[in-house]
């Protein structure tokens, strides 16, 4: 919201906050750099979060908490780097150098009744509540910070907005969520705050790929357009073009509605193993197909932190690893059915079962999973070497699903949890993002609504059609 910049009551204050040395039991003494596994090489991109709090934070206490969390997460004060492998021309080792560099923090005061006009999690823009990283942050050896923080005070309420840009090279959404939770913990509990040993982030090892790079037949089996390297200019043009043609839709389901849908589809499928997200994925695909989309494939973001069991290729620290530990898996879908209610529910059930079967296959077949993961690892390493990127705009016959339903982003910094809000950005065509909605007054954890955000064509009836069909579906679930 650029117009808010006109309401700045004081100039933006930029500081570089000095940090202490590492303080993390998972980091051996004397460690000067953290290796980056090829599958975690996602330097072009960020995990961007805005937290809205109902009161004013204490600056001294916040900066003390930031220093403590940086000691626990020393990679956030590091620098992205690469070094040529001796004796192997064209091959590189990538790392985060633990430079202990100061954290860029900015402060501003704005005259505004609220940070955003709606409580929706996914906003079209997070301006002016975040401070962008330098354009060079995705390139190695540029001395660019990988984290930035902006604190905004809103007047006259003196409520606080904290914007955090967490470089994707540091980790995925799970890592970003844990980092913010630790920052909140250190702020809320002050100098007496402690972490349990199991709560500290780890930095290595990542998965062990037995065959790498992948053979040609493995590459052909698991390759997809989303992970192939693109010129950065092509990526930006792709996102820009999509933004011109498509607009965001956010559908909100009450928990009772989601439970009704889950029960309905689970009963029809004749099994209890379907998750709420499986059912949501099936319903969303049905929704798009019933409003004119011809979808043949689904690209599903799979978090494999808890997978692999005791297989040596999956180290036990994956659950706490500060890295990218989720990748996109593409699989074909069954054909669409007619719009009759019975067949529509069969279609949702079939998609939900297909998603669950593929996830269980990944979970219970670690050798096959490592074969698959070798392909995104190869593509991401290739892009990092060539200073290229990935573009997550699916072709017309594909959809993408990226769910945060399991993550609680309601990070409160000691304030009442039902008075805080979380926001992020990014929506594109046929790309589903799922979040727990921001709480209403009196709601407790796990009771909030669920939000589904994606984009449809601008300028026609697409948005109204999707909303109309969704509303009719929700009413029908509650009557069954």
TrEMBL record:
InterPro entries: CAT-like_dom_sf. This is Uncharacterized protein.
